[in-house]
Amino acid sequence: MSSTESPSVSAASVLPRVAPVRVGEGERLRSVGLPGVTLSVRSRRPAREGLPPALYVHGLGGSSQNWSSLMAELDGVLDSEAVDLPGFGDSPPPDDGDYSVTGHARAVIRYLDAAGRGPVHLFGNSLGGAVTTRVAAVRPDLVRTLTLVSPALPELRIQRTAAPTALLGVPGVAALFTRLTKEWTAEQRVRGVMALCYGDPSRVSPEAFQHAVEELERRLQLPYFWDAMARSARGIVNAYTLGGQHGLWRQAERVLAPTLLIYGGRDQLVGFRMARRAARAFRDSRLLSLPDAGHVAMMEYPEVVATAFRELLTETEDAGADSGTGS
């Protein structure tokens, strides 16, 4: 594994010059070269030595920045890192062009294996929830606990508001959408995304909104932006259709790690009704329902999510102590 710290795109020799990625106070960003993929990893300096490691995985169209508020809330609790999936955030596309859920999971596993930080407390949102579910199922040795915020697990009847996102995976639709919306400003696009993803968009501060606009403007300059979106959306749809041992619900049943499930009552992308099914599928689960939250509870209510995770951590540490194995 090769690693360099930089606030700019790591593959600058092959990518166009764009504005640097924003790095928040207390954060650093580094580029990690792995076989077939280069990943950008956002981290916070641990408050002290010996904190348990954690890795956070964002959703479709997101980036490691989606976890900044929660990572800050968990200072002193975890040694936190958040990854930009291939083709998102500051990570260039994967060499093989594989944006499937399995492809993204493979990238996460490669990073964890190379970093040697496992087992970690693994967090996933939306697409990242599907990815981390697969990681936890196939590599239980890498996962200490699993926290899923509105995970993209198969639904027989998706919400009407989620249909446009699924349609992005249809060949040609992303290109058509790009042409139809070429006059839209970054501000208009961000407002639309926030209206879709937040239970209450008014909770977004003007500063956070401006940061989101600047990040979208940066990413729209990348030639692979819409391809990464479309192929990853197609990957979710394909994962929904898989049956047998590769099906996501079957893999959820195989997860051994204690699991915290967080669902928002105003989520327009993942049905709130799926919460109880998920609680039944994951064998060692606990469910947090947030009636006013949307699709990104860790951004809307980071303090509530952090409290729930601390409770999970205490519970698992107590269980480990009782069994004589530790955490």
From TrEMBL:
* Tagged with keyword Cell wall biogenesis/degradation: no
| One Pfam family recorded for the sequence | Abhydrolase_1
Q: Which domain of life is it from?
A: Bacteria
Give a GO molecular function annotation for the protein.
hydrolase activity
| InterPro entries found in the cross-reference section | AB_hydrolase_1, AB_hydrolase_fold, AB_hydrolase_sf
**Is this entry keyworded Cytoplasm?**
no
| Span of domain AB hydrolase-1 | 55-300
UniProt keyword annotations, A-Z = Hydrolase
In Swiss-Prot or TrEMBL terms, this protein is called Hydrolase
Task: Report the source organism.
Answer: Streptomyces incarnatus
